[in-house]
Design brief:
By secondary structure, this protein is an alpha+beta fold. It has one domain: 2-Layer Sandwich (Alpha-D-Glucose-1,6-Bisphosphate, Chain A, domain 4), CATH 3.30.530.20. The chain has eight helices and eight strands, in the order αββααββββββααααα. It has helices spanning 7-11, 41-49, 54-57, 126-132, 135-154, 160-165, 170-189, 194-209; strands at residues 15-23, 26-37, 61-63, 70-73, 78-85, 89-96, 99-110, 113-122. The protein has an eight-stranded antiparallel beta sheet, with helices on one face. The longest helix is centred in the middle third of the chain and has 20 residues, at 135-154.
């Protein structure tokens, strides 16, 4: 099973950046991912915000998808919609594992379609950062951006079982290695220690691509 035939090419469509930020006097780190999609801004906005379309490339979603409303992604995060300026930008809180962080998505028309920029800002525990670096969250977003692209290109919904098995396939490991390396280089460019970030990138890659004990590899 393979979701993609060119994992390096797909991973290379994303540009990655790490920024420093601050919320209420608390230092934060911001991962920034950008990718261009070959569709117009109205269609991309709709794919990102229509509760009927979101599960086709991401996860089932419930709630009130308007400013001030609460949303919940099945088996993942929940939060509050903070702002919405259709079809250009929305922002929300990302609440998972007892932590609150912030996500903002911006769309801009481009020559061949629309550029999407996703920013995920969090106050990160120093121990967690030194263990996994930006790949802990960045690699997951790479997978979401890939899924969105596949959906927009094909018009067909992702098979949840294929998505779950993908990280453990040969193609999935190549994709996740490239994504991990991309976030490692973004961290180094952002001023982080190169050796520490490369070690953290290896651990983040292993986290995403190591089969749970007792689980068979997908065919």
């Amino acid at each position: 099973m393979a979701l993609i035939s060119d994992p390096l090419g797909i991973a290379g469509l994303v540009s990655r950046e790490l920024r420093a930020g601050e919320r209420d006097g608390v230092p934060t780190r911001i991962v920034v991912a950008r990718r261009e999609y070959a569709t117009d801004i109205a269609d991309l906005w709709n794919a990102l915000t229509d509760p009927e379309r979101i599960p086709r490339w991401f996860l089932p979603i419930s709630g009130e998808l308007t400013p001030g409303g609460r949303y919940a992604l099945t088996g993942n995060a929940s939060g509050t919609i903070e702002s919405c300026d259709a079809p250009h930008r929305f922002s929300l809180t990302w609440e998972a594992m007892g932590q609150v962080s912030w996500v903002a998505v911006t769309l801009e028309p481009a020559e061949r379609g629309t550029v999407m920029q996703l920013e995920h800002e969090a106050s990160v525990d120093p121990g967690f950062w030194s263990t996994f670096g930006p790949g802990a969250v960045g690699i997951g977003w790479d997978g979401a951006l890939m899924g969105l692209g596949l959906y927009l290109e094909s018009g067909t919904s992702a098979d949840p079982s294929d998505v779950a098995a993908f990280p453990f396939t040969d193609e999935g490991r190549v994709f996740h290695r490239a994504a991990s390396d991309g976030w490692t280089e973004a961290a180094i460019s952002g001023g982080e220690d190169p050796e520490a970030m490369r070690e953290a990138g290896d651990r983040a890659y292993a986290f995403y691509t190591t089969l749970p004990e007792g689980t068979d590899a997908p065919e």
